[in-house]
Specification:
Number of domains: 5
CATH architecture of the largest domain: 2-Layer Sandwich
Bound molecules: zinc ion
Shape: globular
Number of strands: 20
CATH superfamily of the largest domain: DNA ligase/mRNA capping enzyme
Strand order of the largest sheet: 2-11-10-3-9
Largest sheet: 5 strands, mixed
Number of helices: 25
């Protein structure tokens, strides 16, 4: 009997070990997990429980997760970068306190409580106050060098401000992506037929591992620092307490935690954790718990670490709120590029403080993976606290009559047979005149980052398309004031304003038009670079693959997509229509003379300029036809150096790239403008 149970337990143990290894691989190396953190943590803690019960069973090698991948240089951490033990359980949190007090022989310990940001851990080294490198956690002993991508993070200083800067310090923090940026990027990916990221952390993890730092910079990564690794002198001597670590991080000008608490005993810790759980919903980024650290750094050092986790700190994680509800139906949305996105229509249910009636199902593969069927009872939670997602199906509540969901083979809006392109997960409606596609193309065309046509919102565009007044972007310019009078809820005055904004947009700069055309892979930034390079739409339209790829930031995929756009006769027809309506196709705002040596040159900026914001300097460079880039490479032409410059100066010297002071840059610029 007993041996039978042991046998079953051993089978369970083996299965768990395999599962954990499988999910480790997905989580750490490929940044695309299939299960939620909560499910993963449950598997792992059951595995640990069985292991502690049977120390002789040794399949699952306990190890720190490993994020190192091909293509990156691996470098050692001066002090190991361990991850924290975590718990979802109040009792375990109080046991952590009890154990710590017993070890250190204290009646009460003081703690600092910090929000646990849902991002990617990073160790940034400053030598003599200058940023020299950034490493991922890796396997805890050594990590991947991601300095080229961390350089693109807005708000990360190249040099530390103030006094008492140690000669060498590893500062630990978290790289993350705001909820808003996460939603924006996933929307773009769905439009491009790509797999969306599961949550903001996976997106951040994927982004720091991009080899292309230009692409990384468009993702808008953020960083917050909260701890110290190796330091000369030691962190204990320099900072004394964790509270002081936070204060000094702020004083040095580094991005810091927006809120932390100091507690004088574990009961206070618990009440601050509740407070954090309440206020974190107002943060612009995801948090998944509280980090509790012994405040006194000498004590934290004394208590030490196991081979895997430090003993002086613990992460208390908030279990995601799960709600059970019924899937009433699945509707299909058609996007601007024809991508079909399935949406779950749910019996409304409250989750994490909001009423949820819809959840994205991403694509046909996701529906098949979940095997979710209309009429099923499903579990939902907010992925990364942002997007409602179906995380499971309660099979035992399934109706006997249920059937797998047949993904439509025809576009629900126009009836065209749908197609799936190689290497894409999405099904698309290939008919460009399909009404929802037309509506979304027009909304994109008029959006703020494109033609910026005021007041041309969803309800107006819907009516224009439904009434047959507009069937492509060019038709907008044929509208008369009277046409707007026909629409519901448009007053005479708004009709005039709408008409005027449409007419005014004819004189927009070229990049706005290029972005508005909706060429695949062309965002606002690439549109600006193309406009600067080609100056008018005809040169772009006639450019060969080779010429296209000479423009800054344009790779092969993008060049192909531009060629495909201009080889399509429907698109050429629309361009002709736009042209005959008087839409300007060659306005590029640059004062540069053709002979200016600044024109087309690549500038990198480092350091601070009193009274001159970085953005302003960038505009100055661009106004004379120069380009600004974020990292120093062999292709950089000049490095402009302000006060407190960063590691870029050394890099430029190594590569033999000339440096300019602000004065030198200005005189260079003025010399060549006539
Ligand atoms: Zn269609």
């Amino acid at each position: 009997m007993n041996s039978n149970r042991n046998h079953n337990e051993y089978q369970r143990y083996k299965r768990l070990a395999q599962q954990v290894a499988y999910h480790d691989e997905l989580y750490y190396r490929r940044a695309s997990p299939e299960i939620s953190d909560f499910e993963y943590d449950c598997l792992k803690s059951e595995l640990q429980y069985l292991q502690s019960k049977h120390p002789d069973w040794k399949i699952a090698e306990e190890k720190v997760g490993d994020d190192r991948i091909e293509g990156f240089v691996t470098l050692p951490h001066r002090e190991p970068m361990l991850s924290l033990a975590n718990t979802y359980n109040q009792t375990e949190l109080f046991e952590f306190d009890k154990r710590s007090r017993k070890n250190l022989q204290f009646n009460a310990l003081e703690y600092v409580i910090e929000p646990k940001i849902d991002g990617v851990a990073v160790s940034v080294t400053y030598e003599k106050g200058q940023l020299v490198r950034a490493l991922t956690r890796g396997n805890g002993i050594e990590g991947d060098d991601i300095t080229h991508n961390i350089d693109t993070i807005v708000g990360l200083p190249q040099s530390l401000k103030g006094d008492n800067i140690p000669p060498f310090i590893e500062i630990r923090g978290e790289i993350f992506i705001n909820n808003q940026d996460f939603l924006r990027i996933n929307l773009e990916r769905e439009e491009e037929g790509l797999e969306p990221y599961a949550n903001p952390r996976n997106l951040a993890a994927g982004t720091v591992k991009l080899l292309d730092s230009q692409k990384a910079s468009e993702r808008n990564l953020k960083i917050i620092f909260y701890d110290i690794g190796y330091c000369e002198p030691t962190a204990e001597d320099l900072f004394k307490t964790q509270e002081n670590v936070h204060n000094v991080i702020e004083k040095w000008g580094l991005p810091h935690q927006e809120k932390f608490w100091k507690a004088f005993n574990i009961n206070e810790v618990w009440s601050y954790i509740q407070e954090l759980d309440f206020i974190r919903k107002t943060f612009s980024y995801g948090t998944d718990g509280a980090v509790v650290k012994i405040d006194n750094l000498f004590l934290r050092k004394t208590i030490g670490a196991t081979s895997k986790v430090p003993l002086g700190a613990i992460a208390y994680k908030f279990a995601p709120e799960r709600s059970e509800t019924m899937l009433k139906g699945i509707t299909i949305q058609v996007g601007r590029t024809g991508v079909l996105t399935p949406v779950a229509e749910l019996e409304p249910v409250t989750n994490s403080g909001s009423l949820i009636s819809r959840a994205t199902l991403h694509n046909a593969d996701e529906i098949a993976r979940l095997d979710v069927r209309v009429g099923d009872t499903v579990l939902i939670e907010k992925a990364g606290e942002v997007i409602p997602a179906i995380v499971g199906v309660l099979r035992d509540k399934r109706l006997p009559t249920s059937a797998p969901y047949p993904f439509p083979t025809k576009c629900p809006a126009c009836g065209s047979p749908v197609v799936r392109l190689p290497e894409e997960v999405a099904w698309r409606c290939p008919d460009a005149s399909c009404p929802p596609q037309v509506r979304r193309r027009i909304l994109h065309f008029s959006s703020k980052q494109a033609m910026d046509i005021n007041n041309l919102g969803v309800s107006i565009v819907d009516q224009l398309v439904t009434r047959g007044l507009v069937s492509n972007i060019a038709d907008l310019y044929n509208l008369k004031i009277e046409d707007f009078f026909l629409l519901d809820k448009v007053a005479d005055k708004s009709a005039k304003n709408l008409y005027d904004s449409i007419q005014a947009s004819k004189n927009n700069e070229l990049w706005r038009l290029l972005h508005g055309l909706g060429i695949q892979h062309i965002g606002a930034q690439s549109a600006k670079e193309l406009a600067n390079f080609f100056k008018n739409i005809d040169s772009l339209c006639n450019a060969s693959m080779e010429t296209l790829m000479q423009a800054s930031g344009i790779g092969e995929t993008v060049a192909k997509s531009i060629r495909a756009f201009f080889e399509n006769t429907d698109n050429l027809h629309i361009l002709n229509q736009l042209r005959s309506s008087g839409v300007c196709m060659d306005r590029v705002e640059t004062l540069a003379e053709a002979s200016s040596p600044i024109k087309g040159k690549k500038f990198v900026i480092t350091g601070m300029f009193p009274n001159l914001p970085r953005e302003e300097l960038k505009r100055m460079i661009e106004s004379v036809g120069g380009l600004t880039v974020d990292t120093v490479t062999k292709k950089t032409d000049y490095l402009i150096v302000g006060s407190d410059p960063g590691s870029k100066v050394q890099k430029a010297q190594e590569l033999g790239i000339p440096t300019l002071s602000l004065q030198e840059f200005i005189s260079l610029k003025d010399t060549h403008i006539t």
